Amino acid sequence: MKQKPVHPSMKGFLAGELILIDKPLHWTSFDAVKKVRILTGVSKVGHAGTLDPLATGLLIICTGAFTKKITGYMGMKKEYTGTITIGATTPTYDLESEPEQFKDISNITAEDIYNTTKQFVGDILQTPPLHSAIKKDGKPVYLLARKGKTIELKPRKITISLFEITAISLPLIHFKVQCSTGTYIRSLANDFGAALNTGAYLSSLRRTSIGDFSVDDALSPQQFEEKIKYLKSESERQANT
After folding, report:
1. Active site includes 52?
2. Do 78-210 and 8-75+212-239 have the same topology in CATH?
3. What's residue 238's pLDDT?
4. Alpha-carbon distance 163 to 86, whole Å?
5. Active-site choice (22, 52, 94, 191)
6. What is the pLDDT of residues 193-206, one digit of tens each?
7. Domain 8-75+212-239 superfamily per CATH
């Protein structure tokens, strides 16, 4: 993509900057990248770690020369908060598909829930969801899964350093997770439900940090747009004085 001339106030983004965006619900990670690209006029823009459309929270976006740092940011430890709903499963392991295979959870206790988290802390093997962007034979597996094709994905070694239950209001379980890159929280929810013998799916998710970067320091797309408008207006005001 050929770089077109940018507004004088956007030259910092053209050279290279790191932007922290609080991704809204239903936005794709690419939606956020596209927004930054349009507002700044910079063509070289990328993100450091996809968030599903039903997840919110921290997205690191890099412009210009900073895109070379993306791999390093992607390798950092991540923290999430969210809810797991027990007593049913979904094909996608989240609410992108309808709950099914309902089970009675009346015998599940808080002790059962706390004890079950223990087997998911440390270095574990995790199989990615079939409805994910992982490629098999050159194609994203979610495309194959939607066609009803049988797919076998190999388990991957991941590290979960913290799996904390922060509140229980059955069928909802509120949690906090700190994990290595490559961890699928949807798979964690599904595996957690299997271990409880109730089934479960991820019902909400928010990424709160990547390494030392916090969502508390991130801007919403609207706030970022307001920042860009201010930078451009200030640049034009100074040019006219």
Report:
1. yes
2. yes
3. 85
4. 16
5. 52
6. 999 999 999 999 99
7. Pseudouridine synthase (3.30.2350.10)
